[in-house]
Amino acid sequence: MRAFFDDADFNFLTEIALGAVFHRAADTGEVLTTVDRIQSGNPQSWVSAWTDTASRLQSQALAAEKAAHRYSAAAELLRVSMYFALATYSADGAGDADLFPSLWEKHRTAWDRFVELQAPSIEHIAIPYEQTSLEAYFFRAGGVGERRRTLIFNNGSDGAVTAAWVQGIADALARGWNAVTFDGPGQNASLVRQHLWFRPDWERVITPVVDYLHTRPDVDAERLALLGVSQGGYWVPRAVAFEHRIAAAVADPGVIDVSAAMLSHLPDFMVRMLDQGDKEQFDRDMELSLSTSPETRALLGFRMRPYGTTSTFDFFTAARAYTLSAETVQQISCPVLVTNPEREQFWPGQAQQLYDLLPGSKAMVAFTEAEGADGHCEPAANAIRGERIFDWLDEQIPG
Questions:
Q1: DSSP label at 136?
Q2: Using CA atoms, how far apart are residues 17 and 36, in angstroms rounded to an integer?
Q3: Which of 6, 16, 303, 344 keeps 20 to 30 A from 231, CA to CA?
């Protein structure tokens, strides 16, 4: 496809925005006029353009709600949430330390009002987790108390709650599934409000979600599916290796080693420093390098935030723990679907590696550049992505 920007990150995010149109979380004209105002590679330009579009639309939503146009207000708020979420991706590069949480809260406020306008079809819930709880949302496909198969949607490392809607929830509801999505440690509210950090043993997160669903009369607890996107392509197979109450799982894409996406950007001598545990020298050399590259500093700040550290050594070291061993994968007992998009830019080749290690019932689905479905999580192809993933899920867990 023809690129919108020379900046690869801006272009990828624009594809995400256009892909969201399929599930009404964006509108084509709003996206195109917004990106037309953005200077490629300029973080402040990105933030300002998306914030302006979101703010204008938020005013329209408020007016629609005051005029009792509930449907229009909800539709607009969903798009507002998406646009504020898109703005967060360049917040670290805009030079304001408070900008990321501020934009995130605006995205969440719009989303939560969208949820309120959809009640009782959507519930804002809390899932007990260790000594606290995880914010989550339950989406009901049928009537109150009607037991249905249920999809657990596991977001990626940086996906907003609107990403869950676009990449799984809307498709699930259309096919008669209930669905739930949650803010795991390092994600969304758990990150911004609770300061909970990522963890590699993700079964400790999924098991409380499953425990919660077992308490609901509108959930058929024997028919639970788990779909993970982006870094969820690691978390999902890790979780189902230990949590065996999941009937079918999807990794989009398959991920074996999360740290590979980070380590590939380091020169060999710095990887050796990590191997040797030389934290002081590593952090010092990284600081020197980052002093000449504000773009890289901003990107690292964004990526390091969910790990709860400001030390680059600790960040890269922690990421190495997010690795699936052959022994762990061999413990998976449920059917697993692995997606394998062409031009996967973060974990190329790992989908095939995961597929080859899976011991039982498994399938792999390709997405190609020729059909406009290439790239990480197939951002511009939510129609065929949803059709292929949910056709497989329907086969594993019939309605």
A1: E
A2: 13
A3: 6
Pairing verdict, β 122-129 and 132-139: antiparallel
Q: Which pLDDT score is estimated for 138?
A: 98
What distance in Å separates the CA atoms of residue 348 and residue 327, rounded to the nearest whole number?
Answer: 22
Long-range Cβ pairs for the range 396-399 (8 Å, 24+):
396/225, 396/247, 396/248, 396/335, 397/149, 397/223, 397/225, 397/247, 397/248, 399/149, 399/175, 399/176, 399/177
Ranges of residues in the chain whose predicted pLDDT is under 70 = none
Q: What is the pLDDT of residues 301-356, one digit of tens each?
A: 999 999 999 999 999 999 999 999 999 999 999 999 999 999 999 999 999 999 99
Q: Own/partner pairs for 119-123, CB < 8 Å, 24+ apart?
A: 120/144
Distance CA 368, CA 343 (A): 8
Are 89 and 59 in contact by the 8 Å Cβ rule? The answer is no
Q: Which domains are present in the chain?
A: 8-115 (1.20.1440.110), 122-258+322-396 (3.40.50.1820), 260-319 (no CATH)
- Cα–Cα nearest to 129, from 181, 206, 227: 206
